[in-house]
User: What shape does this take?
Amino acid sequence: MAALMALHGVLAPVTPPTYEVYYPLFRDVPPLTLAVFILALSTGAGIVEEAAYRGYMQGPIERRHGPVIAIAVVTLFFVQLHFTAAQKMSGPRILFITVASLIYGILVHLSGSIVPGIILHAAGDAFGLFLLWFVWAQGATRAHPAGFAAAMRTPTFWLNVAEGVILTTAAVWAFRKLKRAATAVRLPAESPPAPAARTR
Assistant: This one.
């Protein structure tokens, strides 16, 4: 998720603002109430969306058609969920949500549980909203994207690029370790039982 945040920073120069729905909340709601609201919203989204999409939806499809088709189908519907009248979508935002959904789906497939996805989803949403609140408070939200040409002249852009490369490499390494651990746990359960000893 940290690598995705870095990707978001890299794509921000060409991303039109899609989060205006939150700005009135940041402006009108008292800070403590807003913080509690963000935590409740993020927790609810993590639990409900992971239970619905990666639990009830991905599980049955995966058992019948395998993980690749299951994760792809769930991701398609998960991205569609985020197309609402209140919240605008853009190409980079669609990419961001697609990659996030793939991560959650792979986590469920490898771990056999939706709990890691719930934690990651809730924490990622909360961090993203608190970060957006901070950026808005600093007056750093733009009406129009600056474009890559202008962004590439700033150190922040290259910091996001470096962060994205490092964290993506770390994420790939972590997923490979998780896959090996999951395989090691499943092998004893899938091996045939030892023949029972004969007794007289």
In short: The chain has eight helices and no strands.
